[in-house]
Design goal:
It comes from Actinospica durhamensis. Keywords: Transferase. GO terms for molecular function: transferase activity. This is DUF4111 domain-containing protein. The protein is α+β, with helices and mostly antiparallel strands. It folds into 2 domains: 141 residues, Beta Polymerase, domain 2; 107 residues. It is 47% helix and 13% strand. It contains 11 helices and 6 strands. A 6-stranded mixed β-sheet has the order 5-4-3-2-1-6, with helices on both faces. Helix 3 links the parallel strand 2 and strand 3. The protein is globular. The model has no long low-confidence stretch (mean pLDDT 96).
Length: 257
């Protein structure tokens, strides 16, 4: 058993078998990161994976992977539409020298693979190194060097002023989900800025409630309570919660200095 969900384990076993057959000798291993690795996954979580390879997939292998990931989201059940991950060559995966290298990426619910740096972050490496779940292959810690906590802090310090601008490129702020996600994202950035580590969404919110100005506790409690509502596009933010979120964002960004 890899996870607490039998149907997800079945899907992961099938994915590993299919990918092994496609990649052949270039397959190194398969791993879980994200919420599952951090021990905080539930039915609202994505299943974040990394497939390690000796070289980036290309040619026939890339074409076959594209067909596989085009088909997976069409399967019945919950998890086929909640898979997200990348095919990372072990050279660029090893350490921060590989940042900026695009990996073949499957976005949440998408049927297309794209070359993207979405998973190629210090954040992903830290989770894999400390908490990654090995599905197949060698222990993931053997493939990734230790991540410098100061490098983690520096990356969050640089990211903090851009959080809201980044969200506005893809998220709708007339949705309750976006209000909750925004507060959570700032909490996760602040947690890493303070500790040099990564926390799950809920743990970051709890940490913020414990360590930030008590003025924000009602907002943080609302986000924790409402997370169970999930993605409902027609649901507007609670009255006043969006203004509170914008104020919290300004407060959080003041820590960038």
């Amino acid at each position: 058993m890899f996870t607490a969900f039998e149907d997800l384990d079945t899907l992961l076993n099938d994915l590993i078998g299919s990918v092994r057959a496609i990649l052949g000798d270039t397959f190194v291993g398969a791993y879980l990161q994200g919420s599952f690795a951090l021990g905080a996954a539930d039915l609202l979580s994505d299943c974040d994976f990394i497939i390690a390879t000796t070289v980036p997939p290309g040619g026939t292998a890339e074409a076959q992977l594209r067909r596989l990931h085009d088909e997976i989201p069409t399967r019945p059940g919950h998890w086929p539409k909640d898979m997200e991950g990348s095919y990372a060559d072990i050279t660029s995966l090893r350490n921060a020298d590989g940042l900026g290298t695009p990996w073949l990426f499957s976005n949440h619910g998408s049927r297309d693979l794209v070359w993207d740096t979405h998973c190629n972050t210090l954040h992903t490496r830290w989770i894999l190194r400390h908490h990654g779940i090995t599905l197949a292959g060698p222990p993931i810690a053997d493939l990734i060097d230790a991540v410098d906590p100061e490098a983690m802090r520096a990356s969050m310090r640089a990211a903090l002023p851009e959080v809201m601008a980044g969200l506005r490129t893809w998220a709708r702020f007339d949705m309750a989900w976006t209000q909750r996600y925004t507060v959570t994202e700032y909490c996760r950035v602040l947690y890493t800025l303070r500790t040099g580590k990564i926390a799950s969404k809920r743990r970051a919110l709890e940490w913020a409630s414990e360590h930030l100005d008590p003025h924000w506790r009602p907002l943080l409690a609302q986000v924790i309570e409402d997370r169970a509502l999930g993605w409902v596009p027609a649901e507007p933010p609670r009255p006043g919660s969006l203004d509170a979120t914008y104020a919290f964002a300004a407060y959080a960004e003041s820590f960038a200095g």
